[in-house]
Amino acid sequence: MSYCCPADPEKKKEWEEKMLQEIDFLDNDIKKASEIFSALGHPIRLKIAYFLSQRDHCVCELIFKLNEKQNLVSHHLTVLKNCGIVEAYSSSKWHFYRLNPEFGNILNTISQVQNKKSEYAELS
């Protein structure tokens, strides 16, 4: 059995070294993760991410699907782009947006959690 916060100075030094080795994220990684969760925490931005997980969209399509004003949709796209969640590209005179492929798994995980939550609710 291991003991927490040993009093013995030798064991405390070993314990502290072990604790330092167990740190998974550096402060910058935590800050970036926090920005991503914050960006996805807004309902409009999460909807945009879900739409873009299905296929690329131009702003006109997102405005229509969200039933929001162009400047608001553009603002939310900018937030998502700044976090690296969304990528933009041009084709002819049109601007399109796509979900960064690395974020598809996050959305799938959210869906799985929601489905499990629904299953638990049905069992209750």
Overall mean confidence score, pLDDT: 87
Number of strands: 3
Q: How many strands, which pairing sense, and closed or not: the largest β-sheet?
A: 3 strands, antiparallel
- Give the radius of gyration: 21 Å
Short description:
The protein is mostly helical and 124 residues long. It has six helices and three strands, in the order H-H-H-E-H-H-E-E-H. It has helices spanning 9-21, 27-40, 43-54, 59-66, 70-82, 104-123; strands spanning 57-58, 86-91, 94-99.
Please characterize this protein's 3D structure:
A three-stranded antiparallel beta sheet has the order 1-3-2. The protein has helices spanning 9-21, 27-40, 43-54, 59-66, 70-82, 104-123, and strands spanning 57-58, 86-91, 94-99. The model has no long low-confidence stretch (mean pLDDT 87). Strand 2 and strand 3 (94-99) form a beta hairpin. By secondary structure, it is mainly alpha-helical.
Descriptors for this entry?
124 residues; mainly alpha; 3 strands
Topology diagram in text:
Blueprint: H1 9-21, H2 27-40, H3 43-54, E1 57-58, H4 59-66, H5 70-82, E2 86-91, E3 94-99, H6 104-123
Antiparallel strand pairs: 1-3, 2-3
Helix pairs in contact: 3-5
